[in-house]
Amino acid sequence: MKIRARVISRGDAEGEVIVSKRSFSFLGDVDAETGVVVAGDSDIAGENIAGKIFVFPSGRGSTVGTYVLLRMKKAGTAPKAIINLESEAIIAVGAIIAGIPLLDRPEENVIELLESGEIVRVHAGREGWIEVLSRLPDGPDGNDSGASRGSGRHSSNSEVSK
């Protein structure tokens, strides 16, 4: 399955998804030295975004967040790629200067479609797309019925679907 999206910052990445249903600020919501989300009101508090494909609706907060994202990239604690429903200037500039692929305006609501722990490929070139490489199994038989989408499970068990 490929989902088209608008390219904000070019690059390619593949990896595990971490999904937040809340807007995010790189200034104050994450420990830049570790990549761990420290905002107590976050739905992914305590999770590590380092080296993952970070999916969240939009950015919020101070322009300093741009430089926090660059600092995270230099420290090796930044996400591999970012996917927003609607990116804003702080996240966009941060991703561009840090060289982190960023897509927004996906043709499907990836916040509801994707689940933390699934594996995706992000392509942000002349065209942008997200390819779902593996989904988490839903039931005891491993069939992906979609019943638990958005349940917040964090499992690395997956099956490949195209």
UniProtKB/TrEMBL annotation:
SUPFAM superfamilies: LeuD/IlvD-like. Component of a hydro-lyase that catalyzes the dehydration of mevalonate 5-phosphate (MVA5P) to form trans-anhydromevalonate 5-phosphate (tAHMP). Involved in the archaeal mevalonate (MVA) pathway, which provides fundamental precursors for isoprenoid biosynthesis, such as isopentenyl diphosphate (IPP) and dimethylallyl diphosphate (DMAPP). It comes from Archaeoglobus veneficus (strain DSM 11195 / SNP6). The keyword Signal does not apply. Residues 145-162 have a biased composition (Low complexity). It is an enzyme of class 4 (lyase). One of its GO terms (biological process) is isopentenyl diphosphate biosynthetic process, mevalonate pathway. Pathway: Isoprenoid biosynthesis; isopentenyl diphosphate biosynthesis via mevalonate pathway. Its EC number is 4.2.1.182. The keyword Nucleotidyltransferase does not apply. This is Phosphomevalonate dehydratase small subunit. The active site is at 62 (proton acceptor). Residues 135-162 are annotated as: Disordered. GO terms for molecular function: hydro-lyase activity. Residues 24-103 form the Phosphomevalonate dehydratase small subunit-like domain. It catalyses: (R)-5-phosphomevalonate = (2E)-3-methyl-5-phosphooxypent-2-enoate + H2O. Belongs to the AcnX type II small subunit family. Pfam families: AcnX_swivel_put.
